[in-house]
Amino acid sequence: MPTLRLGDAAPDFTADSSMGMINLYDYLGDGWGILFSHPADFTPVCTTELGTASKFKNEFDQRNVKMLALSVDGVASHAEWIKDINEVQNTEVNFPIIADEDRKVSDLYDMIHPNANSTLTVRSVFIIGPDKTIKLMITYPASTGRNFNELLRVIDSLQLTAYHKVATPANWKNGEDVVISPAIATDDAKKIFSKGVEEIKPYLRMTPQPNL
Ligand code: BEZ
After folding, report:
1. How confident is the model over 28-58, as pLDDT tens digits?
2. I want to staple 65 with a disulfide (CB 3.0 to 4.6 A). Which of 32, 69, 113, 148 is the partner?
3. N- to C-terminal Cα separation, the chain
């Protein structure tokens, strides 16, 4: 199985989940998606992550991003675990968790890294664009919970740069100035970016975020 890379088609699949059978492409429709794996049910870091993710659902909705979690345990186990998550995180898990008992989806997305753990998934994140290609991949070890503010930040960057000829600098946050794509000559940039162009170096030109 070839390794997935940025720009590749996100492998489609149909799998059982805590909310019934799900086909990835149907589930995503023409929106964006985030697929994130968890090593196992009833584990402490995963419990905090899924509680946090459910509290962030409005933020993902606002960005037209469908959420889809995955763990290698079964539907019955997910149902019991979700009760715990809701209780201890004071929330309501409001998106599906794939029950990947046969590791079909984990294998498709290369979420099991045998030198880390031979049977459990690592903490993979895939962001999938409306064209069903992979826009971003991040991998964390089981011992490190993800930062959901960072996931929203990269989605803001991905969605901005998909539609405007800009890139986002280090530590950029929604609302801050952005970098003009190196492919655009400064004279052309001045016509395109009506809010102004600051030329710091010929290759480093900044402009206010164009979609605000
Ligand atoms: C956890 O979610 O807490 C966890 C899972 C597997 C290994 C280590 C931690």
Report:
1. 999 999 999 999 999 999 999 999 999 999 9
2. 32
3. 42
Please list every protein residue whose CB sits less than 6 Å from any atom of ligand 1.
39-40, 43-46, 142-143
- Quote the ligand 1 centre to 36 CA distance (angstroms): 14
Beta strands 198-201 and 65-71 are unpaired
Report how far residue 205's alpha carbon sits from residue 108's, in angstroms, rounded to the nearest whole number.
40
Claim: this prediction has a pTM higher than 0.90? yes
36, 43, 48: residue to mutate for ligand 1 pocket, most atoms within 8 A of CB: 43
**Whose alpha carbon is nearest atom 1 of ligand 1?**
45
Residue 26 makes CB contacts below 8 A (sequence gap 6+) with: none
Q: How far apart are CA 109 and CA 126, in angstroms?
A: 9
